[in-house]
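Researcher: Structure for this, please.
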Amino acid sequence: MTEPAGTPGSPEPTPRREGPQRNEARSWLIVIALALVVGYLIWFSIDNTHKVEVHWIFGTTHGSLIWVILVSLLLGAAIGLLALWLGRRRSRRAQPPDG
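Model: Predicted structure, token format:
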């Protein structure tokens, strides 16, 4: 006669082995994806090294296209974060205090 699961003396179920293997496969996929992204960014940087003119309101400057792209990215991110911070600050001030 077999004993129900969970009673003393019953055999324990075998542990599932797909958990660690699945995590290892996921880790390798992440590493490969990051390597592809880094490789693409390096290729993008090398491909965009030619000089371009940047026209300002009061003048013109010359610079490498990759630097123009990176500075534009950083300025856009900074302006976006500032707008987000100001919006949250304004919404907090508009709410009445609890109490």
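Researcher: Any notable elements?
Model: Helices lie at 18-47, 65-94. The chain has a mean pLDDT of 83.
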